[in-house]
Write a structure and sequence with these properties.
There is one protein chain. Helix 6 links the parallel strand 4 and strand 5. It contains 12 helices and 14 strands. The two termini are 23 Å apart. It folds into 2 domains: 239 residues, Aspartate Aminotransferase, domain 2 (3-Layer(aba) Sandwich), CATH 3.40.640; 123 residues, Alpha-Beta Complex (Aspartate Aminotransferase, domain 1). It has a 7-stranded mixed sheet, with helices on both faces. It is of the alpha/beta class and 374 residues long.
């Protein structure tokens, strides 16, 4: 993975530096407005990363000690960590074998009497069926937090992912299509949650730093609860605004590259590439491939085969419950999660990957299907 950055981002950062306002300020506000509009969200709150967005989402939703939060184990560990930050209990659910996402059935198997929230990820950019999840959770008083870390540019039912979410968290890490270096966003349909998240990200100050610094005689502030320092800087937001303008082109190129991979992989035995679900389109943030038993090489063997050809692929998405930090939290069997994490790998895919470089990857995959060594 390589981010797509250029002179426009350089110029945007230089403009902020010349302005003298480099912390959270007018560029952050402009980025929030632009991102909310692009994702069809009512409110957007910029934060330091997606993990802090997940933390704030749980806090403003009222989740705390004594509550259970159902999450996929098949996700980066931050998804499982967030409930722990608020004193809740992480409860793992299995995922769909095709999409790698939670479903109403997998959530139902993990729900307890204390379940008050579900964190559901658009894994690798594959849009989850949020409408189906909310149809199960809403009547039970369970808030669904969409972990859209990988989701910018994906769609569900003809709208951007997250558009139908009561609350969602986003990542702008360099592995994502849209990057600000580090950085994240919380979007929500509820104004009171947005207002509280804005205060909490800034130490829960009653008067924002931007308002204080814009005043000759700053108004007094108070701190009515314990807050956090989860702010984004104007330097990051300036990059984010440029990147947001690039998003349609980024998605188009990713999907073009994925189409090339899919055409080749469809002809190879024992390999299956992730694809669009029937309800949406993926941005192919991660182009992951499942290696079945009928393939001549297992997942580890295929990784070695690609490395021998000078191609750096990666193991598939982790299973958090298999790591010491979350050992013993799998209250239900997770066979699909364990299968996918052991049998998938992620192919190189980024905006400036050339057709020739992709051809090299495809040729290595083809030679692996014949058992050839390179």
């Amino acid at each position: 993975m390589q981010p797509w950055l250029g002179e426009e981002e350089v110029a945007a950062v230089a403009e902020v530096i010349r302005s003298g306002w480099v912390a959270q300020g007018p560029k952050v506000a402009a980025f929030e407005s632009a991102f909310a509009s692009s994702q069809q969200a009512a409110y957007a709150v910029a934060v330091s990363n997606c993990t802090t967005a997940l933390h704030l989402a749980l806090v403003v939703a009222g989740i705390g000690p004594g509550d259970d939060v159902v999450v996929p184990s098949f996700s980066f560990v931050a998804t499982a960590n967030a409930p722990v930050y608020v004193g809740a209990r992480t409860v793992f659910a299995d995922v769909d074998a095709t999409t790698g996402n939670l479903t109403p059935d997998t959530i139902a198997a993990a729900v307890t009497e204390r379940t008050r929230a579900v964190i559901a990820a658009d894994q690798g950019g594959v849009p989850l069926d949020l409408a189906a999840l909310r149809a199960f959770c809403d009547p039970r008083g369970i808030v669904v937090i969409e972990d859209a870390a990988c989701g910018a540019g994906s769609t569900a039912y003809g709208r951007p992912v997250g558009a139908g979410a009561e609350i969602a968290a986003w990542s702008f890490h360099p592995r994502k299509l849209l990057t600000t270096g580090e950085g994240g966003m919380l979007t929500t349909s509820r104004p009171e949650w947005a207002d509280r998240a804005r205060r909490l990200r800034e130490h829960a100050m009653s008067v924002s730093a931007a308002d204080r610094h814009a005043s000759v005689l700053a108004p007094p502030e108070s701190y009515d609860e314990v807050g956090f320092n989860y702010r984004m800087t104007d330097l990051q937001a300036a990059v984010g605004i440029v990147q947001l303008g690039r998003l349609p082109e980024l998605v188009t190129r990713r999907r073009q590259l994925a189409k090339g991979y899919a055409a080749a992989i469809d002809e190879l035995p024992g390999l299956r590439m992730v694809a669009d679900p029937e309800w949406g389109t993926t941005n192919f943030q991660s182009c992951w491939v499942e290696v079945a038993p009928e393939h001549p090489l297992d997942r580890e063997g295929l990784l070695v085969h690609l490395a021998d050809a000078g191609i750096s692929a990666r193991r598939g998405i982790m299973a958090a419950h298999q790591h010491p930090a979350h050992a013993g939290r799998a209250g239900v069997p997770l066979p699909v999660t364990e299968h996918l994490t052991a049998s998938t790998l992620i192919l190189p895919v980024f905006h400036e990957l050339t057709d020739g470089e992709q051809d090299r990857v495809i040729e290595a995959l083809r030679s692996s299907a014949t058992g050839e060594r390179r």
